[in-house]
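SAMPLE LOG
Freezer: B-3
Tube label: C17
Construct: single chain, 445 aa
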Amino acid sequence: MARILVVDDEPGLREFVGDSLRLDGHDVVEAEDGRVALKRLDERGFDLVITDLRMPHVDGLTLLAKLKADQPEVEVIVMTAFGAVDSAVAAMKAGAFDYLQKPLGGPDELRLVVERALERRRLLDAKAGASADDGLPPLTYGDPAMAPVVSAIEKVARTSASVLLLGETGTGKEVAARAIHARSDRRARPFLAINGAALAENLLESELFGHERGAFTGAVERRRGKIELADGGSFFLDEIGELKLELQAKLLRVLQERRFERLGGTRSLDVDVRWIAATNRDLGAMMTHGRFREDLYHRLAVFPIRLPPLRERKGDLVPLARALLARIGPSVRGRVLTLGADAEARLVAWHWPGNVRELANTLERAAILAERDVIGAGDIWLEAGAPPPVEAAPPSAVARPLVELERDAIVAALTSVAGNRRKAAELLGIAERTLYDKLKRYGIE
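STRUCTURE (predicted):
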């Protein structure tokens, strides 16, 4: 199913095109002229626009130019009256995919051109997705510790549930996110990713939601955010624990209402994305201390998946090292390098606090140091000062009743704001009335 916008000032023709495409299962929106079409394009994303060339207010060529400037990924088919082929040719030179002559020959002719345009869109999306995957290793090479992870990914991918990926830095959370997208019914749609720790807060908000012209200094033109660009596909938000509370609140609204506004904008835009978030932080502790919203956590953690660290999946280590080195060797030395048995033994003996990322860096150093095409143990330079892994306490040793955690969180919030109940409620992400009720329930003075 594709999202298609049909633009024509003739109601009969507009309805014929719309009804024909709806019978094929497409989501069709109609607009009576170019001005209304621009409004519809502001409100949501489309895969394909079918537009007449001659219309009042905003004609088809102007609409096409605006589309190719703002949303170049959208395919456009123009419709033109018999004898006005020159205008259609001009439209194709300006970026239209194809044209249809009025009166239309029938639904079969329409469907043929539409399917060709949508197939081109699918191929371009697939190519973009493939290039984005370059350099990412497979999720696992068969270690038993990864079997529950693979099973969970297979099951949740077939749904639209939000997923929260948990694990140490470098355990492959983005690889897992892409695996979920690739196995879902959204795989033909975009996969967009952003790292919550990689950008300053003001830049991050613009990257997420986009902005209107003049929204801030330097905003010289409208820009669509990554959430908007991911419409219909999957959105991966890495390092979710790094977001400030204000941004968490804005993100919560998108998850709840599937609507948002660009920075500096007043118009609400609809968006349909599959949310995948990841963190290496203890969100439970952050909620207790009022640094992460509980309501946002429950929206994201519909289906949590923990990725084990590399030291817990040693069966993957040597195959993964070989695969990484097969990519690193040609880029660093211009030829394929291999690992000697002593080098592999040295890799297996290490505890890898930095996980896959540390392994890749270690192999790149080894490729630089090695004087032969076979890397030996002497070429493997490990971070001797790295601390040994700290094993987490078993759940039974740290589990506490939820009412105790909630009471402690309320007391901590009140203490941090010198008893100001309004500010405490804001920190906790709850209404002030709700806070009053909880104070009474727990007997907190």
